[in-house]
Design brief:
Elements lengths: L1 H17 L4 H11 L8 H7 L3 E5 L3 E6 L4 E7 L2 E4 L12
Antiparallel strand pairs: 1-2, 2-3, 3-4
């Protein structure tokens, strides 16, 4: 019975690690909260989200603003939740 419980726990941790959202998922969730949906190139997105720090905790992930030191979003099991809805990325240059 102990082995079965350990196997189930290992499978749960493995599934959580497999579905951990990537940084681009956080960027998409934050961008969807912003008014004016526009298309930005990869370089413009790198500039817009340059002051975000991505942290990966194996089964969860988070982004924080490096200037204000506030959490912007967190993700777990493939879902990303934007915590700081007032955070705005730097304007992209065209």
């Amino acid at each position: 019975m102990k082995k079965f419980i350990l196997l189930v726990m290992a499978a749960a941790i493995g599934y959580a690690a497999y579905t951990n959202p990537a940084f681009i998922d956080h960027q998409d969730a934050i961008s969807s909260q912003l008014p004016g949906q526009q298309y930005y190139t990869e370089e413009q997105n790198a500039e817009r989200f340059g002051d975000l720090d991505y942290s990966n905790f194996l089964i969860a992930s988070a982004t924080k603003d490096t200037i204000n030191m506030t959490m912007v979003s967190y993700g777990f099991l493939g879902r990303v939740t934007v915590v700081d809805e007032d955070w705005r990325p730097q304007p992209a240059r065209y």
